[in-house]
Amino acid sequence: MRKAVQKLSKFEFCGQDKRVSFVETLHVKAGVECDVYTFDGDSSQDLAVVHIAKGCKTPLQKVLQGENDG
Known about the structure:
This protein is an all-beta fold. It contains no helices and 4 strands.
């Protein structure tokens, strides 16, 4: 369990401060938590801040398709 962290009220996005509201903290797995936020007045996007304890990692993901920039 991580120490209490002050929740965000704004987030800088593309050079502009955007107001955000905290939704919930998801406990992904041991040592991995995710704070979920919404952008006030904009339901087209959301924000996740992932906290990972030392020695832990996020679950592995399989990429099914995508584009290669190189």
